[in-house]
Every structure is written in structure tokens, then in C-alpha cells.
Design brief:
The complex is a heterodimer of chains A (505) and B (152). Chain A is mainly alpha-helical and 505 residues long. Chain A has one domain. In chain A, 73% of the residues lie in helices and 1% in strands. Chain A is built from 21 helices and 2 strands. In chain A, helix 3 (42-49) runs antiparallel to helix 4 (58-83), helix 6 (107-140) runs parallel beside helix 10 (245-266) and helix 10 (245-266) packs across helix 11. The longest helix of chain A is centred in the first third of the chain and has 34 residues, at 107-140. Chain B folds into 2 domains: 3-62; 77-140, no CATH class. Chain B is flat, with a radius of gyration of 23 Å. By secondary structure, chain B is mostly helical. Chain B has helices at residues 3-7, 10-31, 43-62, 77-95, 99-113, 119-140. In chain B, 38% of the residues are buried. In chain B, helix 4 (77-95) packs antiparallel against helix 5 (99-113) and helix 5 (99-113) runs antiparallel to helix 6 (119-140). Classes of the chains: A mainly alpha (505), B mainly alpha (152).
Chain lengths: 505, 152
């Protein structure tokens, strides 16, 4: 306890160093700026700005990435509330009541409540993270390759089956992602795999190109000439951002319940933030005395999902940092960025790179404070950014994606990957396949293979090792149970629509 | 039931995935699979390929499920082609042209994909972004991307 507080103090020391703080501020600012643009979700924003972090050392780089993440997440909420345009799936629920509030002229209050809810929820998430992470690490040190493998397997299966829609499609996409991770030179034998003879692919596919192709280009491909962005005449002034006392009272308990839902689900690897926000919203509607107000501008319907998604993402950092197993695509991207910076996430991270771990935690808080500080005076600017017409926006964004991908390795070949993954992404989107599991599989694939090989080497090729070691066996059985439950319940009743339907009615 | 209808939705995806899986299995075998205790480079690809094929087949057989209606529409032809052309022209003109022509042409192409843009407005966006590219990436970040080049 005492030690934890000391570590936290040390973290604040790191995060508040002028140099680090500057990158953090820049990250939040740029993340918010890009995230607010229509069609720019958190994933696109982070992968677009990823190359910026390559030039700076690991600690400020990761602080900046966290800042970008926060900024883009909050920026997305602005678009959802003011324009009814969810550029990041978790914000789809926020639209339901956020946009009606804008139509009633209460958009500013909705933004204010969103900010309060996210700040509160993130703070709770950070506290959980501070005390839970060292605990998890002390267990994680007992893990061998077999255990790591089993946990990764469970994370992948959870990520594949717990998102919306068909679990079978999710699994297909996870496998596709794992195969993308295979591309390149095999570390053990030097054999080039699935490179189609291209020398440029011997280092594997580029993470930035993959993400920008799947989430950026593919999104533009499907929405060009199809997306109807209503010209927003919403004007939000600083003074509008303050919700009335009655609104705060109304939103208070939903905020706390949303936080609780998010924290609970954050502990489960693989459950994406989208499903969490849906559950938080459905819960509020269920226990509300006036459920008919939902969908027509109920402030509870904004506070609860936003709180849940923020506490969820915060708690998601625990398995990402301590086990090296990301909960969703955004976390996978951050994990990939860490690996590119030469930092191997895992139980040893906290002891080997205390500056990164505790600095990151402190910067979470600083980032959240920065968001509040930046957003109140700058809301006018964000609203103006929202009015940039889509027909100017997406050509410019495509250029920035191209140059961003190019700058990673100074290679135009990577830009071609961008186009290829754009086509893949649009194809899968048109057939209603989920895209996030691809990123999860791509990032985890190489680690899974390496650990699997090690486990097999140690056990002399006995696959039964996964069932003989208690911890590994637990996770394998959990994964199997989850998989069979999800598939069977999907095949029984059409789609996991019970929650979604409850919301959409 | 026409073939087009039968192929719609999940089944088309399932077939593509299954074919991809079979292809990977064949490639994988050529890398050598080895044994469980000494895995060859092809072991994991073969396993993944088999699983992908299997999932593809399962999807193909269970794919009769009716989807409430596509969430994402099929790309608009003009817009989609323009976007792909934009990325490709960036690559091509990046080699034979340089930063300035690559930026201008790719932004112009992409902008022309939107039916609401005119030649003039597309050129205007392209010009603005080209200027920004030169200022930010060439002078600001001194990126290794010549303004004008031929091959090199």
C-alpha cells in the first residue's frame, strides 16, 4: 500500500517532467483534434499519429499515445452527440440520447456530462489499475510459456466471440489476423513465410498500414457518397457546457452504475467497449422509472455508457500492461506500439520499466485533467472542426494516412499494403464481418507462436501440457467453455441481439 | 433461389476464407512442418490454414441466417475506385514524380470521388494539402521524400 503510493508519486514525477508533459499535452490536443472529425475513430486516429511517436524516446512516446487515445475517444463523443455520427463503435449508444439532447438545445450539457462521467469513470479505473496490477504481476511471475499461451488463447477467443454479431465470423477474422501476423521471416528458421516473394514483406506487415487500411481506408470506401453528414448548426458556447444541478443529480447514479459495469467488464479480456456501453445503457433503461424518456434525450442515457466505456478502457490496461494481452483492438494497437519502441509488455514490465508503467498511470490522470481543461475553452473550435465538409475531409485524410504509413519505414511499399487492407476491410465490412479481431490476432499472433513453440520445446512435444498444469488448464477450459457457449447460444437463437434490440427499440 | 442470392452475405465471405485457408495450408506444407517438439516454419501456418478452412466451411453451412440488413453498404463505385486510385497514384508518383505531384494527384483523385466535388474544388483541396505537405513534411520534419524526383 505504502509502496504503491510511493510508486505513484514517482510516476507523477516522471509524467510532470516538462519534456514528458509537453508530449502528453500535444497528444491529447492532436488526438482530440483528429478524433472530432467525422469518420475518425480512436483506432484511425491512433494509427495515423503512431509514426509521430517513433522519433521520440519510449517514455514520452507512450505518454503521448495515451494522450492521443484519450483525446480521440473524447473527440468521438463530440461528433456522436452533436452530429449523430459515431465514428467509434462504442459511441453508437451515446448517439441515442446525446443527439436528441442536441436537438433540444442541450448538446452542451450532454458534452459537459460526458466529460464529468468520463473523468469520474477514468479515475475509478485508474485506482483499480493501481492496486490490481501489482497483484496480478505477483501471480503472473509464476506463468510459464504454456500459461501465457493459454491466456492468450482465451483472450483471442473472448475477443472473437464477445463482440457483436456472429461468433463464427469473429473467429474467422481472428484467424485471418493471426495469418497476417505469420507473414514475414520465421525467427527460428529464417524461412520467409507467405511473403509472395516480396522482399519488402520479410519484416512482416506494417501495423500502421494494417490498422489504417482496415479502419481508415475501408471506412472511407464504404462511406464515400453514402454517408449523409447533416450540416450541424449546433453552436455550443463555454457557458452551455455546465449542466444544471437537476441534470447532475439525474446523471449521478447512472454515472456510478456505468462505471461499475465498465470496471467489471474491463477485468474480462476480450469484451470490447461496445458491448459494455450497450449493457450499461440497457441497465439504465431497465431500472429507470421513466424508460420512455430514453432515446428522446435522457441524460442518463449519455452518462452511463460514456462512464462505462471510460472505466472499461482504463481497466483494460491492466491485462495489456501486466500480461501483454490486450483486451480490444485499441489496446492491441498500443501494445504493438510499445513493442515497436522495444518495450516488451508482460509481468516484468513494472520492475524493468517502472518509469513507463507508473509514468503512464500518472499521465492518465494528467491526461484526463488536460481533457477537461482543454475542452471547455476549445469547444467552439471543435464544433467548427465538425463543420468541415466530408468531401474535403476524406481526401486530405487519405493523404495524411499515406504519408504517415510511408514515414514509418520510409517505404512506399507499406502504402500499397494500406490499399490492400483497405480493400480487405471494405470487403469484410460489406459482408458484416467484425474487423477488430484482425488487429487482436495480428498483434498477438507472433507472441502466441513463440510461446507455443517454447511450451512444446519444454514439454518435448507433449500437447497435454496445457491440461496438466493447473493454471493453463483452467484458462484452456474457460476458453473452451466460452467458445462452445457462445457458438451454441448463437446457433440456437438468431444473433446476440437481445441487448441490441432492447436498446434499439 | 438464384445463385446470386445464395452467394449473398455470409456465404461469399465463407468461400473466400475457405479458399484462403486451403492456399495457406499448401504454402505451409512447403515450408516444412516438423514435429511438435521441433516445429518447422510451416507448422503454425498449416494449423491456422486448417482452422480457417474449417471455420469457412462451418460458416458456409450455417450461413442461411438472415441478417436484418447490411449495416455497411457496398462501396460506391466511383468513390471507391477514386480512393484506391488515390493511394496507388501516391505510390507510383512517389517513385516517379516526388512529393509534390504525388500529393496533388492523390488528393485530387480522392476528392473527385465525391460526387459533390467539382474539378475546381478538388483542385483547390489538392493545392492546399500539397502546400501543407511541403511545409510540414518537407521543411518541418525534413522527411526523406524529395519534392521532385524521377525513379531514384
Amino acid at each position: 500500500m505504502h509502496q504503491t503510493l510511493l510508486d505513484l508519486w514517482y510516476g507523477f514525477g516522471i509524467a510532470l517532467q516538462p519534456n514528458n508533459l509537453m508530449w502528453s499535452v500535444l497528444g491529447v490536443l492532436v488526438g482530440n483534434l483528429i478524433g472530432v472529425l467525422p469518420g475518425m475513430g480512436a483506432l484511425t486516429t491512433i494509427s495515423m499519429l503512431l509514426p509521430l511517436t517513433y522519433v521520440i524516446p519510449a517514455v514520452p512516446a507512450i505518454l503521448m499515445l495515451a494522450g492521443i487515445f484519450y483525446g480521440s475517444q473524447y473527440g468521438g463523443a463530440i461528433g456522436a452527440i452533436l452530429l449523430n455520427l459515431p465514428s467509434h463503435p462504442p459511441h453508437a449508444v451515446t448517439c441515442l440520447d446525446g443527439y436528441p439532447m442536441t436537438q433540444q438545445g442541450r448538446g452542451g450539457a450532454a458534452l459537459g456530462i460526458t466529460m464529468m462521467a468520463s473523468f469520474f469513470a477514468a479515475s475509478v479505473g485508474i485506482i483499480v489499475m493501481i492496486f490490481l496490477s501489482p497483484l496480478l504481476v505477483s501471480i503472473a511471475f509464476k506463468f510459464g510459456p504454456a500459461e501465457i499461451c493459454a491466456i492468450m488463447l482465451m483472450g483471442l477467443i473472448a475477443g472473437a466471440t464477445m463482440s457483436r454479431g456472429s461468433p463464427i465470423k469473429g473467429i474467422a477474422m481472428t484467424l485471418f489476423g493471426l495469418l497476417c501476423g505469420v507473414v514475414g521471416t520465421d525467427v527460428n528458421s529464417g524461412q520467409a513465410r507467405l511473403t509472395f516473394g516480396a522482399i519488402e514483406l520479410s519484416d512482416g506487415l506494417d501495423l500502421g498500414a494494417l490498422c489504417l487500411g482496415l479502419f481508415g481506408i475501408a471506412d472511407f470506401l464504404t462511406s464515400v457518397n453514402r454517408l449523409e453528414v447533416k450540416a450541424s448548426d449546433a453552436r455550443v458556447k463555454m457557458s452551455d457546457m455546465r449542466p444544471t444541478r437537476a441534470e447532475i443529480r439525474q446523471a449521478f447514479w447512472p454515472m456510478i452504475r456505468g462505471t461499475a459495469v465498465g470496471t467489471l467488464f474491463g477485468a474480462m479480456p476480450g469484451t470490447g467497449p461496445t458491448i459494455t456501453t450497450f449493457i450499461a445503457y440497457a441497465l439504465e433503461r431497465k431500472i429507470s422509472k421513466t424508460p420512455e424518456r430514453f432515446g428522446k434525450g435522457a441524460i442518463e442515457g449519455v452518462a452511463a455508457p460514456e462512464a462505462s466505456s471510460h472505466s472499461k478502457t482504463q481497466v483494460d490496461f491492466i491485462p495489456t500492461m501486466t500480461l501483454g494481452i490486450p483486451g480490444d483492438a485499441v489496446m492491441a494497437l498500443l501494445l504493438g506500439a510499445l513493442i515497436i519502441k522495444g518495450v516488451q509488455p508482460g509481468p516484468q514490465l513494472i520492475s524493468e520499466h517502472p518509469d513507463i508503467f507508473w509514468g503512464l498511470i500518472a499521465s492518465f490522470w494528467i491526461g484526463n485533467v488536460l481533457l477537461v481543461v482543454l475542452n471547455i475553452p476549445m469547444i467552439g473550435v471543435w464544433v467548427r472542426m465538425l463543420q468541415v465538409p466530408y468531401r474535403f475531409l476524406f481526401p486530405s485524410a487519405i493523404f495524411f494516412m499515406c504519408i504517415g504509413v510511408f514515414s514509418t519505414h520510409n517505404a512506399l511499399f507499406d502504402v500499397m499494403e494500406l490499399a490492400v487492407f483497405g480493400i480487405f476491410g471494405a470487403f469484410f465490412l460489406a459482408l458484416d464481418f467484425p474487423l477488430s479481431p484482425i488487429v487482436l490476432g495480428f498483434v498477438l499472433g507472433p507472441m502466441l507462436e513463440e510461446n507455443f513453440r517454447r511450451a512444446m520445446l519444454i514439454s518435448r512435444g507433449d500437447i497435454g501440457v496445457f491440461l496438466q498444469r493447473p493454471i493453463a488448464a483452467t484458462f484452456v477450459l474457460l476458453a473452451a467453455a466460452l467458445l462452445s457457449f457462445q457458438v451454441v447460444s448463437y446457433l440456437r437463437k438468431p444473433r446476440l441481439a437481445s441487448v441490441a434490440e432492447a436498446v434499439s427499440v | 433461389m438464384s445463385i446470386k442470392h445464395w452467394l449473398s452475405g455470409d456465404r461469399a465471405g465463407a468461400i473466400v476464407l475457405a479458399v484462403m485457408g486451403v492456399g495457406v495450408v499448401f504454402r505451409g506444407f512447403s515450408y516444412g512442418t516438423g514435429s511438435l517438439s521441433h516445429m518447422g516454419a510451416g507448422f503454425i501456418p498449416v494449423v491456422l490454414g486448417c482452422l480457417l478452412t474449417l471455420v469457412g466451411l462451418v460458416l458456409l453451412l450455417s450461413g442461411a441466417r438472415k441478417v436484418a440488413g447490411p449495416v455497411h453498404s457496398v462501396p460506391d463505385l466511383r468513390g471507391g475506385l477514386a480512393i484506391l486510385l488515390a493511394v496507388c497514384s501516391f505510390v507510383l508518383l512517389g517513385v516517379y514524380g516526388g512529393l509534390v505531384p504525388a500529393t496533388f494527384v492523390s488528393v485530387f483523385c480522392a476528392a473527385m470521388g465525391d460526387r459533390k466535388n467539382t474539378l475546381r474544388s478538388a483542385a483547390a483541396v489538392a493545392a492546399v494539402i500539397t502546400l501543407a505537405a511541403v511545409l510540414i513534411f518537407h521543411w518541418g520534419l525534413s522527411m526523406q521524400f524529395p519534392l521532385f524526383t524521377w525513379g531514384g
